[in-house]
TrEMBL record:
NCBIfam families in the record: PRK04351.1 (NF003339)
Species this protein is from: Lactobacillus kitasatonis
InterPro entries in alphabetical order: SprT-like_domain, SprT_Zn_ribbon
Entry protein name: SprT family protein
Domain SprT-like, first and last residues per copy: 4-148
Length: 151
């Protein structure tokens, strides 16, 4: 799906579900990883995560567009457009938009540098930073920690 097709789809969803025209731009954002889309308050354009335009993830696309259009239409008419606002929750439920972006495996997994192991119970503590093994003990059995591996 390209930019023009996405624009037409968004305009159609806006007319069909909100009975209002979508008069601004929809852009494709290839850098998004944790969100499905974003509505910009300043110039009213909507950005959609490019990964949801792929064929295997398009089943989530309409729900994401509806979610962003809820922000868009509520903001333009002066009602509560934030996630916590009652107006937003009611409209999102009415049009059937997705509340959260589904996890499609784009979130970066943390790479730990250090692995500490308890000498008593063997519990593992993966850490990004070094810790003082004299000062800190195992949270389960209060045993001593030792540095087992540096990645």
């Amino acid at each position: 799906m390209n930019q023009e097709e996405l624009q037409k789809l968004t305009e159609k969803i806006s007319r069909d579900y909100f009975q209002r025209p979508f008069l601004h731009m929809v852009k494709i954002n290839r850098r998004m990883t944790t969100t499905g889309g974003r509505y910009h308050l300043d110039d009213h354009h909507i950005e959609i995560n490019a990964h949801f335009l792929e064929e295997k993830n398009q089943k989530y696309l309409v729900g994401i567009i509806k979610h962003e259009l809820c922000h868009y239409h509520l903001h333009l008419v002066g009602l509560g457009y934030k996630h916590k606002d009652r107006d937003f929750k009611i409209l999102l439920r009415r049009v059937g938009g997705s509340r959260y972006a589904p996890d499609i495996g784009l979130r970066r997994s943390k790479k730990y540098k250090y692995l500490y192991v308890c000498e008593n119970c063997g519990l593992k503590y993966p850490r990004m930073r070094r810790i003082n093994t004299i000062r800190y003990r195992c949270g389960k059995c209060k045993g001593r920690l030792r540095l087992a591996r540096v990645f």
